């Protein structure tokens, strides 16, 4: 089974402070392990849910942005990111099974359910259903 991780990515750009979630799925491209990555806005309060010690995450749907592949090291990494790009904190992780090209069954601490990623030339959306 492949692994997944959800990271809280905080960056301080001086006047502007950016915060978002990175959802990363382990994939193999030409035999090389990488993380397929999407960024979602911080309106999905995963950290508050984790801090409240809730067992599972409720359904949500939100816009997403497809990012370039990331290194597998982010499956286990927490801390500062090089070149003053902020820091990351692990919010959830686990394993997943691919159901179809855009649908995945996640088995994590908070995210335990189906993740659907709709990716069109005009938009990208992530839908999670426990």
Which short descriptors sum up this protein?
single chain; mainly beta; 10-stranded antiparallel β-sheet; 1 helix; globular
Mean pLDDT: 86
Task: Note the beta-strand portion.
Answer: over 45%
Q: What's the oligomerization state?
A: single chain
- Rg calculated over all Cα atoms: 14 Å
Structure characterization notes:
With 130 residues, the protein is mainly beta. The chain has 1 helix and 10 strands, in the order βββαβββββββ. Strands 1, 2, 3, 4, 5, 6, 7, 8, 9 and 10 form a 10-stranded antiparallel sheet that branches. The two termini are 19 Å apart.
Q: How do the helices and strands line up, and which of them pair or pack?
A:
Layout: E1 2-13, E2 16-29, E3 32-40, H1 46-51, E4 60-63, E5 65-70, E6 79-80, E7 87-100, E8 103-108, E9 112-119, E10 124-129
Antiparallel strand pairs: 1-2, 1-7, 2-3, 3-5, 4-10, 6-7, 7-8, 8-9, 9-10
